[in-house]
Amino acid sequence: MIIVIQCKDQVGLVGSIATILAKHQLNIVSMREHVDKAENIFFVRLEIEDGDTGGLEETLKEVLPPGAIIAVNPNPHKKIVVMVTKEYHCLADILIRNYFKTLGATVQCVIGNHATLQDICERFDMPFYHLSHEQYGRKELEQQMGDVIQQYAPDYIVLAKFMRILSPAFVARFPMRIINIHHSFLPAFIGANPYKQAFERGVKLIGATAHFVSNELDEGPIIAQQIIPVNHSFTAATMVKAGQEIETAVLANALKLVIEDRVFVYGNKTVVFG
Amino acid sequence: MIIVIQCKDQVGLVGSIATILAKHQLNIVSMREHVDKAENIFFVRLEIEDGDTGGLEETLKEVLPPGAIIAVNPNPHKKIVVMVTKEYHCLADILIRNYFKTLGATVQCVIGNHATLQDICERFDMPFYHLSHEQYGRKELEQQMGDVIQQYAPDYIVLAKFMRILSPAFVARFPMRIINIHHSFLPAFIGANPYKQAFERGVKLIGATAHFVSNELDEGPIIAQQIIPVNHSFTAATMVKAGQEIETAVLANALKLVIEDRVFVYGNKTVVFG
Amino acid sequence: MIIVIQCKDQVGLVGSIATILAKHQLNIVSMREHVDKAENIFFVRLEIEDGDTGGLEETLKEVLPPGAIIAVNPNPHKKIVVMVTKEYHCLADILIRNYFKTLGATVQCVIGNHATLQDICERFDMPFYHLSHEQYGRKELEQQMGDVIQQYAPDYIVLAKFMRILSPAFVARFPMRIINIHHSFLPAFIGANPYKQAFERGVKLIGATAHFVSNELDEGPIIAQQIIPVNHSFTAATMVKAGQEIETAVLANALKLVIEDRVFVYGNKTVVFG
Amino acid sequence: MIIVIQCKDQVGLVGSIATILAKHQLNIVSMREHVDKAENIFFVRLEIEDGDTGGLEETLKEVLPPGAIIAVNPNPHKKIVVMVTKEYHCLADILIRNYFKTLGATVQCVIGNHATLQDICERFDMPFYHLSHEQYGRKELEQQMGDVIQQYAPDYIVLAKFMRILSPAFVARFPMRIINIHHSFLPAFIGANPYKQAFERGVKLIGATAHFVSNELDEGPIIAQQIIPVNHSFTAATMVKAGQEIETAVLANALKLVIEDRVFVYGNKTVVFG
């Protein structure tokens, strides 16, 4: 079972927390702890053997500084909604893991602004909502999408190569719950056609970045990043192909980290107990 | 300041330890903890802000299971002795870090069974002992080497491409204090000419392994490993060159980990809080 | 269009080949060439712009040493058969690429010695043959499997986590056309339970190896290998999970290389123009 | 022996070149070739067995398009000058390789705008010129540096953590012969304090880039790049330390590639036959 705590730092926090766990006869399997000295914030993730956690959260509150964020056994049955456009690679990887129950969460539905990926969803009996910007104006489209999402009350919304920029209004509706895979090693090549930019710059590495969506384009706290080597023999097209492999891997890894409650967000940064 | 503890696991250890630290007004900067469930062994590495640690070790002993290994601020001025044969790459890297005081420990002397590397040592005013197997029989040679080492009372003996197998008697004289860089991704290609073996096998990766020396050839607890890709265009000779780069990096990394007290040894394994 | 040639080396080969291509007004887009000096074998892979290749193979034969292996535009529509047991990760990755036509070849059918993966195949309208060792003795089972395979005349048979050892007789039926993903960085941890072996040895890296199947267990020419870092926090079980990710990636990469005619086999080695 | 050619692409180039080599009884050991389709430029690097190359360059000129750049056995005894400020890691690595004759070129002298690294140079009997911006104005300083460099007529000038921006006038004096190591994964974090930028952005990877110096800050054709993973436990300071390791490795690799005539420059890009 997992316990995560984020609060103002002070001397003795670990002791108080661990002592309370011991009093509850809860054995610590593993513990990851970090203090951001500059911000004076304390982060801890505990994995404990199953036991009676009745009243634990309250007891912890008593010893922790005011405003402490405490989650005892945070939702172990997380739900996600996936948003896509036309590229299949990230969605297919998620559908497969969902189907074989190795995702750690359950996919509720997929929303596409194109119909391209409807068939693959149906093959997995996955509800697919085709909400097109040809059908609706941007404002109404986002309203529709938001309403579909809300009815599933997902823990996270995953932009699995959703290629339209979402408005601040939409993002504000699901704060720090939208996860995006950006097809570049941020902060390099922000914006459109990063592979074209990378190709023209003649870089020797390309990468991908999974991050929470904030309201600045391709900003927001970074969860995971990876790269692969490229060279002159790559065209912009083969860079895209290679990039898709790494995008799939990075998003899969980021989802695993988030779903396992290993990611803490504060300011524009994350603490990730990988 | 660092505190490392290794002991039998039991409920409440983290709490007892952290509470004692709090009582001593010692603030935990970071904490890494691990429990080997199979062996029921508890490992913790604490980094604490400087403070008065008078009596801390004793107080800890009282709450920890019998046989607990406790080190409060383990030797912060570690000393090492380096043993070499003819290849320069690992030694030179160590001498440079030592000279610029970024090694984290101080090199006391270098022992070579060939004179090849004497000049580079002298350029850094580093004592070099040439103890040759042409000069002495194996038993006497190891006696001599052991005596030179002992007079410097080093924390660790680093085999920086020392190409002779040391006898159990020698190893027993410095248990779990001899660190070797093996020019292969162990356990593949144990023994001599691993690059030749790798070349003939047509592998696509070669690696290097830094490990403590036990009495089985190329066995002993592994500290760090890395690999690099190779292909058909490599000859056995260019594989050696490429391998030397990775050997240097792996040994440097392993020494950093050991010197910073991040490595725990038990049985034939390590816990490394990297 | 691709041209691959493998033959005895001699002075002027590249010139003769390139001159003939020029005579045919065939423009070289890219060329990768290698000579194994020890074995005196010449390998070349040419990518040329489309054009009239009538009579090209014959003209090339005239200038090349006897016994030259020449393939002009080798089967651009390759077919593969996949064999599986219970693990889904490699198969699902292949089915997805096949469905979205990014595999570069077409999967003809899947043969499983368990029924576990029948449903996922059916979701992709992929013929699935359940041929069980409970149903048949080993000899008859392999006969049946070989017959199913033969009726599809595949270019390659892919063992996507097929967990039974195939007899020399079966392997001889499809020489150097069977590709296996081995869940280890060969030659380390040959045989069963490599992750258990890796865990007990306390390695800091685990890997996967894609190779052609010869008749020695886990031997055969290596096509591709990759690794990922692991540490003490991994259990044998989480090592398996991590390993499955790398197995999927390595097999996908190996298939890409083979399907794009980038892999030459000779002796127990490969030349891979990646 | 090496032959490199860069010229306008046309049908039959490889054939003409290889045929001429065969006529000269020069056997091709390995050949790497690339065509930039967009720019219609042909690049080839040939490694041939030693033989009589008398008149070869002229014969090649006859069959190659006008303006072809041909180098038969380009300077096999390359000379470099190193410029530094205070950080030792790249310089020390170069001095060691130079001392052990594994650099592939010889270091002529080191120029420092601080005296910090004078002692390490003297330990290797390496001429060190301390030319300080306190001593001279920028224009005069660059004049002095340029004159020192010119008297050694180096093939390349290596900025091994030289922390001042060089004027267009200086760069123009040594076009595409100045190699810089930038402490970032370009184009991310251009300019000063990239590690501080990286730390504040909370990236999960940091990198280094070796590139030729053009007149835009941190632009210029990229030769090599590498990254290492980082996380929340890194401070800006430990990121610098980690970055120095990767800077050293990337610069060493870039120098190897350039010295072995594996790097072609055109426009703001490179072709690297690694």
TrEMBL record, chains A, B, C, D:
Function (record text) = Catalyzes the hydrolysis of 10-formyltetrahydrofolate (formyl-FH4) to formate and tetrahydrofolate (FH4).
Tell me the keywords, alphabetical order. Answer: Hydrolase, One-carbon metabolism, Purine biosynthesis
Q: Which InterPro entries match?
A: ACT-like_dom_sf (IPR045865), ACT_dom (IPR002912), Formyl_transf_N (IPR002376), Formyl_transf_N_sf (IPR036477), PurU (IPR004810), PurU_ACT (IPR044074)
User: A single GO molecular function, which one?
Assistant: formyltetrahydrofolate deformylase activity
Q: Where is the signal peptide?
A: none
Write out the pathway annotation from the protein's UniProt entry. Purine metabolism; IMP biosynthesis via de novo pathway; formate from 10-formyl-5,6,7,8-tetrahydrofolate: step 1/1
Q: Does the keyword Hydrolase apply?
A: yes
Recorded E.C. number(s)?
A: 3.5.1.10
Tell me the enzyme class. hydrolase
Q: Name one Pfam family in it.
A: Formyl_trans_N
* Residue positions of the active site: D218
The family line of this record is:
Belongs to the PurU family.
Report the superkingdom from the record: Bacteria
Which reaction is recorded as catalysed by this protein?
Answer: (6R)-10-formyltetrahydrofolate + H2O = (6S)-5,6,7,8-tetrahydrofolate + formate + H(+)
Domain ACT per the UniProt entry, residue ranges: 2-77
Coiled coil, from the record: none
Under the heading NCBIfam families, the entry gives: PRK06027.1, PurU
Name of protein? Formyltetrahydrofolate deformylase
SUPFAM superfamilies found in the cross-reference section: ACT-like, Formyltransferase
